Amino acid sequence: MAGGCLCGFTSLAAGTLDLDQGTGDPQKILMQEWISTLMFSLDIQTGREESRQIMKKCARAHYDHLKMDEVLLPYIGDLKKFVQFLTSNWNWVVNFDQEKQIVIADENKDFCVCPLVNQERTVNSAVLCYCSEGFAEMMFSKISGKTAEARIISSIHRGNERCIYEIKLT
Question: For residues 106 and 94, is the Cβ–Cβ distance under 8 A?
Answer without folding.
Answer: yes
